[in-house]
Amino acid sequence: MKKLSASILVLLIIAIFAILPAGAVTVNSHETALGDTVTYEVHAISCTSKVQAIDISIYYDSTSLRLVEGSFETPAVSGAITNTDLLGEIRLNAISVEGFDFSSDSIIAKVKFEVVDDLSSDISLYYNVKNFLDENKTELKDTYTFDMTNVSSENGSAIVSKPSSNSESKGSKPESAVASSEADLSSENEVEIDLSASSSANTSSVTQGDDIPSDKAIRIDTPDTTPAVRHTGTTKLYWLIMLCGVGIVVLIGVVFTIIIKDNGGKGSHYSK
To answer: How far is it, in rounded angstroms, from Cα 226 to Cα 89?
Structure first.
């Protein structure tokens, strides 16, 4: 009876751990693997006035992603003050009396990360615009900004997360697409759209579709939107592990109860 109970316990433990996630990792909803390189960019576009003061933070899961040393760049922001030594955060500050021109698509920040852990099922990279003041001292926040994610695997292939509509696109971004997008911005037939969505909508559009989000290719008169709260998929994993642990404890208790009863009870094999 002891051997049978122990065998049942072992089989149940193996079955429980077999259903746990087996290293399925995503970054901004795109599949990755250990060792992959993730390139994250924060852009600004269609800004109708020059920006004089910038304060932006990029947040990442430091347990799952390792910042590639020396990879942080600010192509469209000269004289920027940056801090990459914060845990899970990169800080960017810049001031210009002349102002930064973000009328066309401009990369404010660009950084690379390496996937070093696969415990989190869904890793989020996101940014928060704390200040984006134009030459008129108007706080624009994230009205004219958006982000892009590019995942490069170890074998050299790339999975590019492009801004806009509802379908994911894989492959490298062609230069002709950028030229076409900029040409559309200067078109006389540009349409004005009233956008009232929050940053969560902006981030959703960033990870899917064409090169530039449609809501960023037009003039927007609703500044100071509030960034949405992002979250990773680690919570689900922790709850699953916790439930499995509780189940294992209960099973151990049941098995020990059976063993104790079998040894000390007055069952069919009990002898005086």
So the answer is: 19
